[in-house]
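This section describes the prediction task in plain terms. A model, or a person checking by hand, is given the sequence of a single protein chain and must write out its three-dimensional structure as a string of tokens. No templates, partner chains or ligands are provided. The sample shown here is typical of the held-out split.
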Amino acid sequence: MLLMRCGFLHQHFITIVLLSTFCKDSNTQFGPKLPGFTINAPTRVTVQRNLCVHIPCTFQVPSFFTLSRNAQGSWLKGDHSQQNVVARKDGLDDPQDKYPRFFLTGEVWKGDCSLRISDAKSEDDSLYTFKLEDRGVKFSFTDVSPKVTVTDLTDTPEISTIGTLVAGERVTLTCTSPGRCAGEAPKITWEGATVRKAMVHQYTIYNGDGTRTYHSNLTFSPSIKDNLVRLLCRVTFTDNLTSKSEIVELEVEDAPPKPTTVCSSMDSKFIAGIIVGNIIILLLAGLGLLFFIKRHMKNAGNRPHESKPQGNESAYQDLHGQSIHTYEKITMK
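The expected answer:
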């Protein structure tokens, strides 16, 4: 067991020594090319001035060599006779704040050497070479050195589509700066007669890939006088280079007419008439019922009394009749 472990360590040590020997001079274009070290990256990349570009990149190492988590990666700018480091990542937790516009986005120990360039300048137009360092091994991948070409800025800001506006109804227009970058935010301004009475709000959206997009909102309530008014937005970058949007011409129409007061008053009068009519009907119905009750009671009082043949009441009626008859006789005499 001890012999096997010693043999493995001896083989690993020889591998490191060989890699160190063959790779120590490989950061020149004409250095030896070792089998197993390969890189995949675009040979040419174009970016507009003041915008950003992402260069995808992956690399492989020989199967007998395993990258550690502390593997370091660097991007060098310039031809192979004179190169300067523009991006460097030392292990996992390196903030990479030494080179603010260049950022090695990939995890080196996983074989990812992707590079992002923000706020591209004219001097960024050059060749770029990736260099690997890990446990004494240094190797520059000279097989592919991406050529970055910086062109003039042609992209322009975009204003959101709005369609026809309605007078008096609030609306928000959005101007979006060109590009998806991670550098300093540009200044976005609006131009046009409507801007005087509008609210302007500039903000940044952070994307999931580490880039940002810059926006500005223009919020206002148009009037009919704003019809055919022209608007545009202008983006000014940190080097005072500006880019302006296409001109947008507002279309504003009058708000639809509201229901007139006459119609409202007619409706209220109609409802009031219905209520008064119902009250009159109820009063008439009440008077009719009262008249019916009085008439019924009067008719009931004029009817003859019915005799009741039973009991004390019958005897009382006989006596009462006799007394009246006797009284009549006495009076006649």
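For orientation: The longest helix spans residues 261-301.
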